[in-house]
Amino acid sequence: MKHGKMIKDYIGVTAGSLITALGLVIFLIPNQIAAGGLSGLATILYYLFRFPVGVTMLVINIPLLLLCIKELGMKFGAKSIYGTLIISIFVDLVTILIPQPWTQDAILASLYGGVLCGVGSGIVFRSGGTTGGTDLAAALIHKFAKISLGYGILIVDALVILLAGIVFSIELALYALASVYVTSKIIDVVQEGVSHTKAALIISEEYQRITQELLAQMNRGVTSFQSKGAYTKKEREVLLCVVSQSEVSTLKSIVYHIDPKAFVIVSQVHEVLGEGFKVQPVEKS
Predict the structure, then answer these.
(1) Domain hosting residue 47, numbered range
(2) Structure confidence at residue 259 (pLDDT)
(3) I need a surface site. Which of 28, 58, 96, 257 has the fewest CB within 10 A?
């Protein structure tokens, strides 16, 4: 099981790195969109000095990786080292195989480049690896400046986009910023999945009847916990029920049929693991 998972993770890192390289080569790099991170810095250096992007990424990544290992230990692991190397190879290889960009429209390039980079990075992260660059720099900033990793990544991306605005133009820097936003959203989707699940909080005096009807008609679990109104100081029961998106109307119909004055909050749930929903696989040692 362990060997099978390790092989699966390396396949994921490889596939994710290839998809990210495609997004860079066929959309972002040829349109001068330096969408943050090490790839964005390598794009800027390519247009200034004509250094191959993949080679530049590797040259900058190696000392960053060695410094991270020295200061932080081997926490990044072999998969991150592998991802750092393979994406550099893929970028220059894809450049040879696909020498022409698929579009010269900056809007399309920033959008679809961001989507591909987001999908690729998301797959790499789900496989337990990284492609170096921003992650490594952010980890070092966190180590020495005591800044969170999230802010560290934001600082690195902001500096690269600012440099792109100086070297290229403010307009291209804005496209790069849009691409970074798209990439971050797509990474979240790949990591967490597209959720069609809702969580309903129900506050009602008729909580017992509502609970019975939800259990009987919808076959969904209901959790009850006590709450206290901040203004009225009155204690009452709050029901929590997680349902699929298609079941929301049924839930509301049941609740309001019993108590038209019920207070119901329905919110989006990113991921649900457990009976009736997605089952988390158990790894055997």
Answers:
(1) 2-192
(2) 93
(3) 96
Close Cβ partners of 261 (under 8 Å, ≥ 6 residues apart):
204
pLDDT of residue 275: 58
Residue 237 is encoded by which pair of tokens?
């029961």
180, 212: one domain:
no
Instruction: Flag whether 276 is in a domain.
Output: no
Each residue of 31-54: pLDDT tens digit? Answer: 999 988 889 999 999 999 999 999
Q: Are the C-beta atoms of 278 and 208 separated by less than 8 Å?
A: no
User: What strands, in cross-sheet order, belong to the sheet with 223-228?
Assistant: 223-228, 235-244, 197-203, 263-269
Q: Read off the tokens for 9.
A: 């993770």
Amino acid sitting at position 26: I
Cβ distance 1 to 80 under 8 Å?
no
Cβ proximity of 180 and 36 under 8 Å = yes
Geometric angle at alpha carbon 15, from 271 and 12, rounded to 5°? 50
Q: Are residues 42 and 159 in the same domain?
A: yes
What is the rounded distance in angstroms from the CA atom of residue 28 to the CA atom of residue 94? 13
- Ranges of beta strands (E only) in 166-272 are 197-203, 223-228, 235-244, 263-269
* Distance (Å, whole) CA 28 – CA 121: 15
pLDDT at 285: 44
Torsion of CA 253, 254, 257, 258, to 10 degrees: -150
Instruction: Work out the burial of residue 96: count CB atoms within 10 Å of its CB; fewer than 13 is exposed, 13-18 middle, 19 or more buried.
Output: exposed
What is the per-residue pLDDT for 107? 95
More confident residue, 244 or 109: 109
Domain count of the chain?
Answer: 2
